[in-house]
Write a structure and sequence with these properties.
Oligomer: single chain
Strand content: 15-25%
Order of helices and strands: HHEHEEEEHH
Distance between the termini: 75 Å
Number of helices: 5
Number of strands: 5
Structural class: alpha+beta
Radius of gyration: 22 Å
Strand order of the largest sheet: 1-2-3-4-5
Helix content: 25-40%
Length: 163
């Protein structure tokens, strides 16, 4: 009888330990609502809110390829945002110009918000993770669309932000 109780207890503990943890849904902040409204105005139906992360833009960060690729997709200069906190509000949307590149017809977007205003963002087709490249602007443009002479733009960027 005692052995049966111990066996049941161990079995229950094992099942609890092996249970799948469910992550809580990310909570949308005021900046998230600003980004949500922007996406609705652009007529991109929101499938889900994926969360928020923040970063304070620094000149050192602008020396990195990732920052160059992100800011190259924006219609604003990063200079006026150095030292400011940028809120990246992440969503999955439908009916975006690049959605057809996704097997699920979905696009991941990261909307950049500073001081309660959308300043830009990036977009990527939702794939199985095998997608490569620099992504697209929030409206679906490539770096080459925005900067037709990409080499000239990269040289100017490097001259301005490299050591």
């Amino acid at each position: 009888m005692i052995m049966k109780k111990w066996t049941m207890l161990i079995l229950c503990l094992f099942l609890v330990a092996c249970g799948e943890e469910v992550e809580p849904e990310p909570e949308m902040t005021e900046n998230g609502r600003v980004a949500e409204q922007y996406l609705e105005e652009q007529q991109y139906p929101i499938v889900s809110f994926e969360g928020e992360h923040t970063s304070t833009l620094t000149l050192d960060e602008l020396k990195e390829d990732r920052a160059r690729n992100t800011w190259g997709l924006q219609s604003v200069s990063p200079d006026e945002y150095v030292g400011k906190i940028i809120y990246y509000e992440n969503f999955t949307v439908k009916d975006h110009p690049i959605s057809k590149q996704s097997p699920a017809d979905l696009t991941g977007v990261s909307v950049m918000v500073v001081d309660g205003k959308v300043i830009g963002g990036t977009s990527f087709p939702v794939t199985d993770g095998s997608g490569l490249g620099n992504g697209y602007s929030l409206s679906g443009e490539t770096l080459e669309d925005i900067h037709p002479d990409i080499q000239e733009w990269q040289e100017a960027w490097d001259e301005k932000y490299s050591e």
